Amino acid sequence: MMLAKKLPAGGLSVAVDIGGTFTDLVAFDESKGRVFQAKSLTTPNELSQGVWDCLKKAGIALGDAENIVHGSTVAINIAIEEKGAKTALVVTKGTRDVYKIGRQNRPEAYNFSFKRPVPLASRANTFEVDERLSASGEVLKPLSTSEVEDIACAIRNSGAEAVAVCFLHSYVDPAHEIEAGKILRRMLPGVYVSLSHEIVREYREYERTSTTVMNAYIGPKTSEYVGRMQDRLGEDGFSGRFLIMQSSGGVMSPAQAKTLPVAMMESGPVGGVIAAAEVGRRLGIKDVIAFDMGGTTAKTSLIQGSAVSIAQGYHIGGYASGHPVMFPVVDIVEVGAGGGSIAWIDQVGALKLGPQSAGSDPGPISYCRGGTQPTVTDANVVLGRIGAKSFLGGEMPLDEAAARKGILERLCPSLGLSVTEVAHGILKIAIAKMALAVRGVSVQRGFDPRDFALVAMGGGGPPHVLAIARDLNIPKVIIPNLPAHFSALGMLMSDVRHDFVRTHYRPLADFDYAEIQAIFAELAATGGAALDEAGVELEARSVEYFMDLRYVGQEFHLQIPVTADEILHGNSVAIRERFNHVHEHRFDHAAPDEPLELINLRLTARGGRPKINFPKLAANATQAQTGSRPIYLDDPSRPVECPVYRRELLGPGMRLRGPCVIEEFGSTTVLFEGDLITIADTGEIIVEVARS
């Protein structure tokens, strides 16, 4: 693999990922088989500036780029920071309080400080329309257009910048929503309008309303951001295809992103999961756990049989008191343990870590950008695990003395420990939190983590992954190429993807397969139009079918893949057997004689995109060791003199045994006593983890 900081002219595919601390860029020159990388600090006040900083560092002329894929935290930041648009909600008469009431479950039963999510559209800005459909789609009360016009006037007077419309049972027949949407868009020019059937045609009124309101709430600023990106790219000579990363692991057109900003809430971290599945598959390891540690958080996701796990809903702001969003997302468990996570002393004198983060501004103390609070990165620098002089390939040297002084003054007096002991304690807490996240996607879901390989990504992944693997007895770790840019790399490996759902409640015994075929055909046509918009060639398209099934009497369902042939021939036996198998695997029991019922039909339309293929490494006779330094590993009172290697100098088949460190641009792999690495033909570092 060839790496460089400057790109020659030629056809290029570029991916840019904006994280909480760093903005990462990866570019792939397909004609020459070369991969290029750049990294810059994220610019919170104007997120897009970090993108142009990376482009400048890489020497990329936008006129040479054929494709640009972009993942951003802009949508999720708007929601979490509650800086969205003033939003009005229009609902069916009698359902005004559905959004406010929500669900009556209390996830944290013994938390006396528990608070329910505050609605993003207030009750005062919720308007009722006297219309009604039955659950089967029958019109019980026609829509009054004059009433909608009166409501439009009231919304205008309220100063709302966005409107969400969610009528009862509109997932069955959206005719009333369509008509109301036309009126609102005509009478409220400049106001962002979200209609629930355009986002998710699925039952569960509260979740559907919450998703529609969230889309409207983040819509104006997110669509403005996407539009600015388009304009600035065009002004700088880009004339290729611009795509936006989705939470589901696919990419979409800017037009889709403006209509469905809720689809890009988690667009940053999912790229790394997609790439982890692809790298594992190419190495012949189909069961992997993706572990991503950035500057703000650490994230994990389980991949079985090279298939990325997709959840059909999640909560913005956490399950306990967050806003439910009923939209496909790569199934990720996240904890507040990143390189910038701040270490602090609580009221009883105990050492704590996060969830507060120093981010990129001011950043860790060692960044010398005004940070005053010790972080995980500072602890790593003090312990020698991250080379202060070689950070980011020497582009951004760190101040070890300042990091040491910060820990000494802020934490040591309260704990009565030395600087290295406190730094070691900070990392111990971080490792425990991150290991808990790995357990969350494995042990807590019935999987043994020892049956999986751990794929480390993010700038903070390789320095910590071996300690996590030892804690969980995971025998194998993979450090992929470009780990510090892995989410951006995954964006170049992601297909165009659009997910559609239609609630269609029927007992299995009463399935009308002709009716099901017709619904799937309609969803496929909608998916085809979306792929047209993204410029996907016909030969690159594919469709996947799913049914949400459950035993009669159950509250929740399982998503079961089905084939076109099973739908065509009405093969209920095969569908039932597959459901029983999945239920047995998930819950360790099945009830083959119990009747089944269908809840939803789902369709995924994909447009395949070329994947990066890393070339085989050439044999390298160059000395890979560049020196050594003392590093504190298991014993915080006694450092170990460890050899330091440059990753780009390691040849295929080379084997090294820890303790040692392997440095590369953007990250450092820390190996403990007995850890054994082998360099794969295509450059990946495969580690056999020593037993602790």
TrEMBL record:
<dbReference type="Pfam" id="PF01968">
    <property type="entry name" value="Hydantoinase_A"/>
</dbReference>
<dbReference type="Pfam" id="PF05378">
    <property type="entry name" value="Hydant_A_N"/>
</dbReference>
<feature type="domain" description="Hydantoinase/oxoprolinase N-terminal">
    <location>
        <begin position="14"/>
        <end position="187"/>
    </location>
</feature>
<dbReference type="GO" id="GO:0017168">
    <property type="term" value="F:5-oxoprolinase (ATP-hydrolyzing) activity"/>
</dbReference>
<dbReference type="InterPro" id="IPR002821">
    <property type="entry name" value="Hydantoinase_A"/>
</dbReference>
<dbReference type="InterPro" id="IPR008040">
    <property type="entry name" value="Hydant_A_N"/>
</dbReference>
<dbReference type="GO" id="GO:0006749">
    <property type="term" value="P:glutathione metabolic process"/>
</dbReference>
<dbReference type="InterPro" id="IPR045079">
    <property type="entry name" value="Oxoprolinase-like"/>
</dbReference>
<protein>
    <submittedName>
        <fullName>Hydantoinase/oxoprolinase family protein</fullName>
    </submittedName>
</protein>
<dbReference type="Pfam" id="PF19278">
    <property type="entry name" value="Hydant_A_C"/>
</dbReference>
<feature type="domain" description="Hydantoinase A/oxoprolinase">
    <location>
        <begin position="208"/>
        <end position="499"/>
    </location>
</feature>
<dbReference type="GO" id="GO:0005829">
    <property type="term" value="C:cytosol"/>
</dbReference>
<feature type="domain" description="Acetophenone carboxylase-like C-terminal">
    <location>
        <begin position="514"/>
        <end position="678"/>
    </location>
</feature>
<dbReference type="InterPro" id="IPR043129">
    <property type="entry name" value="ATPase_NBD"/>
</dbReference>
<dbReference type="InterPro" id="IPR049517">
    <property type="entry name" value="ACX-like_C"/>
</dbReference>
